[in-house]
UniProtKB/TrEMBL annotation:
Organism: Streptomyces desertarenae
Pfam family, one: PaaA_PaaC
Region feature Disordered, mapped onto this chain: 1-20
Top-level division of the source organism's lineage: Bacteria
Name the record gives this protein: 1,2-phenylacetyl-CoA epoxidase subunit PaaA
Ranges of Basic and acidic residues composition bias in the record: 9-20
Amino acid sequence: MTTLLPEAGRGEGPEAGDGAREAAFDAAVAADERIEPRDWMPDAYRATLVRQIAQHAHSEIIGMQPEANWITRAPSLRRKAILMAKVQDEAGHGLYLYSAAETLGVGRDELLDKLHTGRQKYSSIFNYPTLTWADVGAIGWLVDGAAITNQVPLCRCSYGPYARAMVRVCKEESFHQRQGYELLLALSRGTPAQHAMAQDAVDRWWWPSLMMFGPPDDESKHSAQSMAWKIKRHSNDELRQRFVDICVPQAESLGLTLPDPELRWNEERGHYDFGPIDWSEFHEVLRGNGPCNEQRLGRRRRAHEEGAWVREAAAAYARKHGGDPGDGDGKAAA
Ligand SMILES: [Fe+2]
Ligand SMILES: [Fe+2]
């Protein structure tokens, strides 16, 4: 939509009832058009997007922590500069996504409050610790790699602001994935101890990365509706399979093995078969019993409290210069 008049939104003509609006919404989704903030949309569509975008935004900013853990100990200036840029990118991804969520009528303060009080989730993967420098490589290669596999189709998501945010996020994620791969390659070709460190990191991050695609299709309660609305384009299992197929040859060229004895090419399916995933672990971590859940949320809350003066100062500055005070005092930015 290009107009700024609220009544000009799709299906919101003077005589359009809910049925007509819903039909216009369904037709737009069916025609692969984008739904924009001023367009009429079903309440459940809006709620699904808020939940998904918020969870995505939270994952970006919580995801800064495990890697930031290694900034001060990066083995060279080059590695430190790359890692700082990468962690900073994740903060930027959080910002794009909170902004996209705000177009749906929720405030950033409200979303952050839900994160801090455990009422909204972030990706479980960030509740695992980063024990060695090689974990930075494994996260880039596998965690950012899984994120890209998930997010590339979101560039075609039916909700315009989310789809557009994803275009830039995906470009940056592909840099993250490559830096992780390159880091692991250097370790894999290094001393035997470095090679072993890289292998150990891949052993620990492989299965949690597969879990990032969410529960199997037959247990995924939101999947079918999200696909009908074209928020999601592929099922969890489809994306997981795509990720495995991409990773196997990459692991070979890295000279590392993936920790799954059942991993083999299936000629008939044209895909790699892989072993069963331990979903009990996934559910435990989701329930808050992962190795770092408390630490991650605790640090996030502290960062938020300690940053209160920055938000207040920004809001005061904006007021003084006649701008929008933004979300600094708890209101949604325009
Ligand atoms: Fe990101
Ligand atoms: Fe990333």
